[in-house]
Amino acid sequence: MEDKQIQTSEGKRSFIQLIKFGLVGVSNTLVDFVVYTLLVLIFGIENGDTFLIGLFTFIAYGCGVLNSFILNTRWTFKKEYKKTGAEAVKFVAVNLISWGLSFFLVWLFSNHVFADSIITNKVCELLGMEGAEQIQKMGSILSKILSVPIVIIVNFLGNKLFVFNKK
């Protein structure tokens, strides 16, 4: 009976952590998205520009990671956070993998999903954005939006199972 109660309380705690992680994720996503969008709008981006996609996703994701580290270590995974060097290395490793996935997905979607697509053109039309440069910017921004849910899932699993795992 006691094992069942432990499993139930662990399940509830994990569910609450998932909710907290989701809320932190929303703030991280907002930071990441706003920084990425500002970089794209200020400096521009061309379809297929791997360097700028990599640079912009790295800077934006890095800002989101800083936000994530502060909130997750002090709120979401507070009990599991041990403040060890190994934990910090694992956190960086998980987030480098997540950034790599973000970079790849933004590049993929920019070049193969939103590159001069009907969706991109319609969004630009709705926002009053005209010209090839504006369409490319919007394609990159839409690519970032589409990549976010995938990266969030991978990042949660990495943090839960690898970084903040009590075992």
What does this structure look like?
The longest helix is centred in the first third of the chain and has 42 residues, at 2-43. The protein has helices at residues 2-43, 50-76, 85-112, 118-127, 132-163. It has 167 residues and is mainly alpha-helical. α3 runs antiparallel to α5 (132-163) and α4 (118-127) packs across α5. The radius of gyration is 18 Å and the shape is elongated. The protein has one domain. The mean pLDDT is 85.
Annotate the secondary structure layout.
Elements: H1 2-43, H2 50-76, H3 85-112, H4 118-127, H5 132-163
Helix pairs in contact: 1-2, 1-5, 2-3, 3-5, 4-5
The percent of residues in helical segments reads over 70%
> How many strands?
0
Overall body shape: elongated
Structural class: mainly alpha
Low-confidence runs of at least 5 consecutive residues: none
Q: What is the number of helical segments per DSSP (H or I, 4+ residues)?
A: 5
Average pLDDT confidence is 85
Order of helices and strands: HHHHH
Short description:
By secondary structure, the protein is mostly helical. It has helices at 2-43, 50-76, 85-112, 118-127, 132-163.
Descriptive labels:
elongated, mainly alpha, 5 helices, 83% helix
